[in-house]
Amino acid sequence: MKRRVFIASAALASVGVRAQVADLNDAINKAGRQRMLSQRASKAYLALVQNVESRNAQQVLDRSIVLFERQLAELKTFAPSPAIRGTYDALGGAWNDFKRELTGTAPSRDEAAQVVKLDAAVLALAHQGTTQYEAASGKPVGRLVNIAGRQRMLSQRMAKFYLAGAMRIDPAGSVVEIGKARTEFVAALELLRNAPEATAQIKEELVLADAQWMFFNRGLQRLEGAGTSPGLMSDVFVTSENLLAIMDRVTGLYADLKT
Fold it and tell me: Are the CB atoms for 9 and 23 separated by under 8 Å?
């Protein structure tokens, strides 16, 4: 996998991130982004342990923590029902446990498996909040914002499990999880592309996503062939960031639709 593209570690600092929740579509977007950040933070931690893209990985980890905490406060404040507020109370507790593991000591192999374990609780509650916000919207476009936003999480989840597998953290399970995420990701790309609400701009972004996916998937397949190296891990890290940036733009474009 020789092609390398710009790394988008700072992309979410400027793409689709508003200071406060604007409306329900924006809430679904931000709630879905919390799912992604749980996986992105773990990915960055595993990269640091293995000295993969170390400078970029540290920036990704630091920015993911800051953005997660900011959005957590915004989503809880905006919550239109006690049930949604309750989800974000619970998410805050799971996040605190996860954050302590991420930041308590220098990244190490001894703690890596625990990081991967704790991100699951954060992901589950973040997904619950996203579906609750989608239900509160009650509009077809809300579902598309959720699906597009979930693509961001899947990009990071696949990269995380690639790095976990390279560390021999449940390597067989990592391959299985990548396979599940791959199937969902490809199906969702097709759904988003063919949605009646898809604008010309959205379709243009999805063409870019298709191209980046090709390079990313090629790297992921190396794990299944038991072929990993620092260079291959770096390629997966970089392409996952590029794919994330594209899908974040797609999610924002769907969120801006007023249908």
Answer: no
Q: Express each pLDDT in 134-191 by its tens digit.
A: 999 999 999 999 999 999 999 999 999 999 999 999 989 999 999 999 999 999 999 9
Separation CA 242–CA 204 (nearest Å): 15
Residue 111 neighbours by CB distance under 10 Å = 17
State yes or no: pLDDT of 10 exceeds 80.
Answer: no
- Residue 229, class by beta-carbon neighbours within 10 Å (0-12 exposed, 13-18 middle, 19+ buried)? exposed
Average pLDDT, stretch 18-29? Answer: 90
What is the reported pLDDT for 118? Answer: 97
Cα separation, 6 vs 50, in Å, equals: 21
Task: Identify which of 31, 22, 255, 26 has the alpha carbon closest to the alpha carbon of residue 128.
Answer: 31
